[in-house]
Amino acid sequence: MMRFRLDSWWFGVPLLVRGPLINLPVVLATDYPPIQVVCIAMILTTTMVMQMLAWPWKVPLLNVTDCIISFCIVLTVTTSTLYLNKIDPAMYGFASGVSTAMLSGIFGAISIMVCMTVSALIYRSAMGGQKELRMFNLGRVPNSEELSKKVKEMAMMLEKSDTGDIASKLAALSVFDTQKITTCVTLLATEVAPPLEDARSFKFNKRIASSSFDPALKRKPQSLRLTRQKKEAEPAMQQAENVEKDVVHKSEWI
């Protein structure tokens, strides 16, 4: 499970089921090669689409190589149907060329995976983390301090905004942008914001927290009402401390 992203923790199940399903058509349709090819292609295509939608691996480059391998395997299985019957030399050359190209793509993707494995042994860092190589992350990852400042500034700006104004702007967004916002809110509520008793109300997507793997990372949930009361009481407490300091300072002066 640690190989997958926390919002794609379930992807291990399709990977385990894919192997037996691929072998099943060979057993059920032993004397019907076309049925075998169609069933295997359907299974591989379904898992490939699920992988492209979920993007489950923590390392972005690993998701790309997995898609390339799945695509090449599907085309290889489909091209194998050309060899079921006798074909002319021209068609045989075409089928051989496609098969060679797909096998080359698979070999290239596996070579990239081998390089990633070797680099992980030498360059020890969390796979898929911010300190990972830029090539593996398919781009630059912003610094955590810089990102925290931006998040804090954005939270302050949203707090000053009117709820109706925010609602009207959210209503104008497309469904894909809305899904990104809900994913962001779920991530912030799960990993960044302090835990609350009603934190489930901020979770729009099914995502497990990183603290689920380490009990030491779990924090005691805080009541939203108590949190607001503490926030409202902070100015009064600060004023009381200032008054106390002034009294002490005057007594020392006297």
Topology record:
Elements lengths: L11 H17 L4 H22 L5 H20 L9 H34 L11 H4 L6 H17 L2 H9 L3 H18 L31 H30 L1
Helix pairs in contact: 1-2, 2-3, 3-4
Polypeptide structure, described:
The chain is mostly helical. Helices cover 67% and strands 0% of the residues. The chain has nine helices and no strands. Helix 3 runs antiparallel to helix 4.
Descriptive terms for the model:
2 domains; membrane; Tyrosine-protein kinase ephrin type A/B receptor-like domain-containing protein; transferase; mainly alpha
How much strand? under 5%
Structural class: mainly alpha
What's the β-strand tally? 0
Low-confidence stretches: none
Largest beta sheet, briefly?
Answer: none
Helix and strand run: HHHHHHHHH
Terminal CA distance: 68 Å
What's the pLDDT, averaged over the residues?
Answer: 75
Rounded radius of gyration (Å):
28 Å
**Helical percent range?**
55-70%
| Shape, per Cα inertia axes | elongated
Number of helices: 9
Protein name: Tyrosine-protein kinase ephrin type A/B receptor-like domain-containing protein
Keywords: Kinase, Membrane, Receptor, Transferase, Transmembrane, Transmembrane helix
Transmembrane segments: 9-29, 35-55, 67-84, 90-123
GO molecular function, one term: kinase activity
